[in-house]
Design a protein that fits this description.
Strand content: 5-15%
Radius of gyration: 24 Å
Largest sheet: 2 strands, antiparallel
Number of strands: 6
Helix content: 55-70%
Shape: flat
Strand order of the largest sheet: 1-2
Length: about 375
């Protein structure tokens, strides 16, 4: 396993390059990039079809930087410099434990002040170059795909918060023992929490900019499936604990690689299992018994489902139907993978289920209802 990018580079080239990037985080970033690409493509396609429309907005140009703008840039610059300079001066600590460095109160005040001045000066300089003797109001055209930068930020912030909240609800006993560390830790993220909270934030911004909810949902379906597939690569490569139950069954096919059937996740980032003899460093644990590598199964299945959604998107004309199909496929995929996946189980009225099984079942039903609604109201939705 490759808990950090440095481990991956060492595996490929045999050299140790100390970098403060964990593998899971890199693939989360790549998942957002993949989602950005798919969302943008769909925005442009739907605008070309006349489903979405550019809007006219009025903005004021030629104004100098305001005191509030200068102050906000200075505060942002201070935070960047406060942490960045401290991290560079304590690089070994940053490489070995980036989370502690970033989330602690430690920093470099001089670095913060320098960056605060730099950010404020830059904002003043840029606004001053475009300053007019008399500011004027102009009309500009904003295309739907130009919202993507704003949408990505909102999805990232609220998605992370939702993923943390749902994960801590799922692991309540661990949360009550150390709530602060559980909330601030970068590990332990529940996909459905990110989907629900991040999706709600995206719908809010889209609606504020004149994009109707069903169209926004349809745009998101293929992109979210692709992003999920890419993100799961990070789960597998880092060994973040999202693996399956113990699998000591013989391989069904001789040609199947061992790591694709049963895997022990050596050097996993979750530090679960037994200590590896002779290993030195932070990530030296390996599971005592092999488990189903469920993340890699989801990578393959969800990428195939993305290709299916991407292929049929041209044929779907009814608003809401694409997202309904996405919810049904997503729910089915996750429900069945839960059958061989390690997770906390709840018991209600004699029924045992995981949080993901419950939510995936609800999503499948919601998707079925949305498809049914689209079909039954096709005349009403014709001019939606």
């Amino acid at each position: 396993m490759f808990p950090t990018v440095s481990h991956f580079i060492e595996y490929l080239f045999g050299i140790q390059v100390p970098l403060p990037f964990n593998t899971f985080g890199v693939f989360v970033a790549l998942a957002f990039i993949a989602g950005y690409w798919a969302f943008t493509k769909e925005f442009k396609r739907k605008e070309a079809l006349g489903i979405l429309h550019a809007v006219k907005k009025t903005i004021t140009i030629g104004k100098p930087a305001s005191t509030i703008e200068l102050a906000s840039n200075a505060v942002f610059g201070f935070l960047i410099g406060y942490k960045l300079v401290y991290a560079l001066l304590n690089y070994r600590l940053f490489v070995s434990d980036a989370q502690t460095v970033l989330l602690s109160m430690k920093g470099n005040i001089l670095g913060g002040l320098c960056f605060a001045g730099l950010f404020a000066w830059w904002d003043y300089h840029e606004k001053n170059k475009a300053k007019l003797p008399k500011p004027k109001t102009v009309e500009v055209t904003q295309h739907p795909y130009e919202l993507m930068g704003n949408l990505i930020v909102w999805a990232a912030v609220w998605g992370f918060l939702g993923a943390k909240i749902f994960d801590n609800l799922e692991h309540w006993n661990t949360f009550v023992q150390d709530p602060i560390n559980s909330l601030l830790s970068f590990s332990g993220l529940t996909f459905y929490g990110g989907l629900i909270c991040g999706g709600a934030a995206v719908l809010y911004i889209a609606r504020k900019n004149g994009i109707k909810p069903l169209h926004m949902l349809d745009i998101g379906g293929p992109g979210m499936m692709l992003a999920y597939s890419v993100g799961r690569i990070g789960c597998h490569m880092s060994g973040d604990g999202d693996w399956g139950v113990v699998n000591v069954n013989p391989k069904p096919f001789g040609w199947l690689p061992d790591w694709l059937w049963a895997y022990t996740y050596p050097n996993n980032v979750a530090n679960e299992g037994e200590r590896i003899a002779g290993c030195v460093g932070k990530f030296c644990n390996e599971l005592p018994l092999p488990v189903y590598p469920t993340p890699i199964y989801e990578v393959v299945v969800c990428f195939i489902l993305f290709l299916f959604l991407w292929r049929i998107r041209h044929r779907i004309k009814l608003p809401g139907m694409m997202f309904g199909i996405y919810l049904m496929l997503n729910g089915l995929e996750r429900f069945f993978i839960e059958l061989i996946r390690v997770n906390t189980k709840y018991e209600v009225a004699g029924l045992r289920f995981t949080q993901a099984e419950m939510i995936s079942s609800m999503l499948f039903i919601a998707g079925l209802l949305l498809v049914t609604y689209s079909v039954r109201n096709k005349e009403k939705l014709a001019n939606y």
